[in-house]
Backbone:
């Protein structure tokens, strides 16, 4: 099937004519001088005007467009944030482009914001030894892996999941910033306190059956859910 | 090469000073030149257990503060060659010790050719205990088989791993050894005491040895003689095993079960 038309966005390279004066005669003169240096170069090229001065005369744009046509250039638009200039552009039959700095900077800002907001990929904090009485380990914005045991009187805290390859006998907190999907895995769980996203249970409230064997603790319907995995 | 060994526990009354006295005597009996320092300023005990309390002229604090030389303060043991005691001051408190002063004393002992410098730590986790362990290369963790002692030992192990010179300078970690004192296999069997396995499981430290509970320990302390000198005592045997294991020998653990104790009772006619 043959297409008649196709509308597509495209980034084109255009010549921008920056205007630093609001005196039309002066501008015309400067432009003439420029064109006289290489008359052929400017023939038929599309031009976007970018006034860098305020208080342009209402007729300025129209006169400028007429002058450019005389010089065989093709004024197609104007780049400005100024509301009055946009109105003038309308009368002069020029398209309005956003200002350069705005066009370029906005996506960059959005990108960096997205980076900060999205859950960044951080590897887990790994503790090689036992976490001993009186010690506290906090894995900020990440998971925590303890290769030894968490002894009585010790505290392990993670914003993400907590994995312990020894026995948890101290206090354990997962999802400490409120992440309700955080989970706790332990080779053996006999803790003083177990807590996910602020919901906790003390040792005496944990069924003895759950204190032996590899276990997963998760949050389900605002309740801690213990599941033996072996 | 001198080695600094701290004898520590966190909890008081578990047998740090008894262990320091017997361990340093045992090392000296093996022919090593040993200095044992009492860090328990204000509550000095080591000189009593070593039986040299009447010979203390200058003490550790005097040396740290530059009021006496090391040679003046070191007390030579009367029973064993190569064993020297640096007593604590009874009239000062632990603030009298400074890190620079302690470091200077330990460096001087190393220069004087001591093979082992044994630091008898005070109880607790405050300044005195932290200074005793700060310069250590190895540590004997003295623990009784009961939960509060084990918990305090766990705490002091954490401090060894975080606040010692070796931890701060990034050298290899302090070598940790577990010494289980007042071990009573019969009471372990009835569940009144934690077993060796329970304690090792909790602390994850290699067992250097278990000292059976024995009245010989108290008798020896009262007599002012380290219990390791009591040839026939089980506690002395156990301390000798500890010294041998510390020096790298592989010796099977004994006094861990009630049956074996029975055998020794027969052997020694007790």
Residues:
């Amino acid at each position: 099937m043959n297409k008649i038309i196709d509308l597509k966005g495209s980034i084109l390279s255009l010549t921008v004519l920056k205007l630093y004066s609001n005196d039309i005669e002066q501008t015309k003169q400067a432009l003439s001088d420029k064109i006289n240096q290489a008359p052929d170069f400017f023939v038929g090229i599309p031009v976007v005007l970018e006034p860098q001065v305020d208080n342009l005369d209402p007729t300025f744009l129209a006169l400028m467009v007429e002058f450019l046509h005389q010089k065989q250039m093709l004024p197609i638009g104007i780049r400005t944030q100024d509301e009055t200039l946009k109105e003038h552009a309308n009368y002069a039959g020029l398209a309005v482009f956003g200002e350069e700095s705005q066009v370029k900077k906005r996506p960059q800002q959005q990108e960096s914001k997205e980076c900060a907001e999205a859950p960044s990929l951080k590897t887990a904090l790994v503790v090689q030894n036992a976490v001993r009485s009186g010690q506290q380990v906090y894995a900020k914005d990440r998971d925590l892996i303890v290769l030894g045991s968490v002894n009585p009187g010790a505290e392990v805290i993670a914003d993400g999941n907590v994995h312990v390859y020894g026995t948890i006998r101290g206090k354990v907190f997962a999802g400490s910033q409120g992440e309700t999907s955080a989970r706790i895995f332990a080779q053996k769980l006999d803790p003083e306190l177990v807590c996910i996203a602020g919901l906790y249970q003390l040792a005496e409230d944990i069924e003895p059956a759950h204190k032996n064997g590899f276990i997963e603790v998760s949050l389900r319907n605002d309740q801690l859910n213990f599941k033996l995995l072996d | 090469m001198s080695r600094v060994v701290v004898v520590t526990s966190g909890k008081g009354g578990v047998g740090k000073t008894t262990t320091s006295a017997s361990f340093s005597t045992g090392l000296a009996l093996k022919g090593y030149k040993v200095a044992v320092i009492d860090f328990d300023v204000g509550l000095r005990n080591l000189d009593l257990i070593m039986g040299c309390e009447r010979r203390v002229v200058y003490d550790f604090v005097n040396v740290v503060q530059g009021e006496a030389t090391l040679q003046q303060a070191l007390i030579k043991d009367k029973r064993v060659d190569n064993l020297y005691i640096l007593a604590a001051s009874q009239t000062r408190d632990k603030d009298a010790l400074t890190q620079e002063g302690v470091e200077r004393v330990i460096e001087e002992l190393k220069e004087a050719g001591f093979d082992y410098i044994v630091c008898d730590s005070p109880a607790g986790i405050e300044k005195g205990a932290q200074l005793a362990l700060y310069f250590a290369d190895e540590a004997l963790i003295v623990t009784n088989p009961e939960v509060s002692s084990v918990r305090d030992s766990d705490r002091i192990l954490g401090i060894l791993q975080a606040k010692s010179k070796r931890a701060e300078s990034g050298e290899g970690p302090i070598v940790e050894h577990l010494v289980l004192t007042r071990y009573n296999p019969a009471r372990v069997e009835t569940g009144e005491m934690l077993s060796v396995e329970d304690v090792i499981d909790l602390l994850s430290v290699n067992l250097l040895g278990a000292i059976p509970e024995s009245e010989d320990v108290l008798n020896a302390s009262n007599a002012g003689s380290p219990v390791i000198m009591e040839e026939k005592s089980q506690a002395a045997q156990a301390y000798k095993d500890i010294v041998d294991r510390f020096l790298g020998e592989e010796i099977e653990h004994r006094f861990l079960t009630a049956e074996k104790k029975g055998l020794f009772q027969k052997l020694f006619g007790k």
